[in-house]
């Protein structure tokens, strides 16, 4: 597939089924070369997600408070900052990734948090927008976290989520979309965008490639949390 073997091995390692402590150790060790590896992968999710959120977001966005969940080294923050977002908070389960994110100077606050195992370190209805880019996938963050993401989002706020559409992630994607749809039917949020993208990133093997293109596909979702209905007194 044209990727260096070491890159293929590191990507495969974090996506394989493993225990949570082992996966976090892998991310800690990956932090030093993560950005070079995703550049080799031509990983487009941070750019696509930030562009989609900025398009949906009412201007101006500089004062909007945004939570970057599973922020990694800060790739999403760079893209958001370019589009005018300035009040950025981040959480990640990997201390190594957080150290890199801190060095960017783009975040006002960074916290260690293993989403899916513990609640987000924020009060209810605290953020104007929440992003989860790259972490919603097989063997990573479970789709059961969606209510927790909604909890910390203000009524009328936006949630930007991504997942991959490659063969090994199709079961997870189906579970995620079922959970997304259930929350929409319950009136918790409304879908603004579900954009399938063919050239999401380079595939690490032929089995994962979309129709022999050498790339895998993915999808960006934008949801808006429904405002709390006004209850008239009496």
Automatic annotation (TrEMBL):
<protein>
    <submittedName>
        <fullName>MET27 protein</fullName>
    </submittedName>
</protein>
<dbReference type="InterPro" id="IPR041698">
    <property type="entry name" value="Methyltransf_25"/>
</dbReference>
<feature type="domain" description="Methyltransferase">
    <location>
        <begin position="67"/>
        <end position="157"/>
    </location>
</feature>
<dbReference type="Pfam" id="PF13649">
    <property type="entry name" value="Methyltransf_25"/>
</dbReference>
<dbReference type="InterPro" id="IPR029063">
    <property type="entry name" value="SAM-dependent_MTases_sf"/>
</dbReference>
């Amino acid at each position: 597939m044209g990727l260096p073997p070491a890159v293929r091995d590191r990507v495969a390692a974090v996506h394989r089924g493993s225990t949570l402590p082992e996966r976090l150790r892998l991310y800690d060790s990956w932090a030093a070369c993560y950005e070079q590896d995703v550049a080799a992968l031509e990983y487009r999710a941070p750019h696509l997600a930030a562009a989609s959120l900025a398009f949906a977001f009412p201007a101006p966005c500089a004062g909007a408070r945004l939570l970057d969940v599973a922020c990694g080294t800060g790739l999403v923050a760079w893209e958001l900052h370019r589009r005018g977002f300035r009040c950025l908070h981040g959480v990640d389960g990997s201390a190594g990734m957080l150290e890199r994110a801190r060095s960017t100077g783009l975040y006002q606050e960074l916290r260690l948090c293993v989403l899916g195992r513990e609640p987000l370190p924020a009060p209810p209805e605290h953020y104007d927008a929440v992003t989860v880019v790259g972490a919603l996938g097989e063997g990573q963050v479970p789709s059961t976290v969606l209510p927790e993401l909604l909890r910390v989002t203000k009524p009328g706020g936006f949630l930007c989520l991504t997942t991959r559409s490659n063969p090994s992630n199709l079961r997870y994607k189906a579970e995620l979309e079922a959970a997304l749809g259930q929350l929409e039917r319950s009136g918790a949020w409304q879908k603004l965008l579900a954009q399938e993208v063919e050239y999401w990133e380079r595939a690490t093997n032929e089995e994962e490639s979309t129709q022999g293109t050498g790339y895998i596909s993915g999808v960006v979702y934008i949801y808006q949390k429904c405002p709390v209905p006004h209850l008239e007194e009496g």
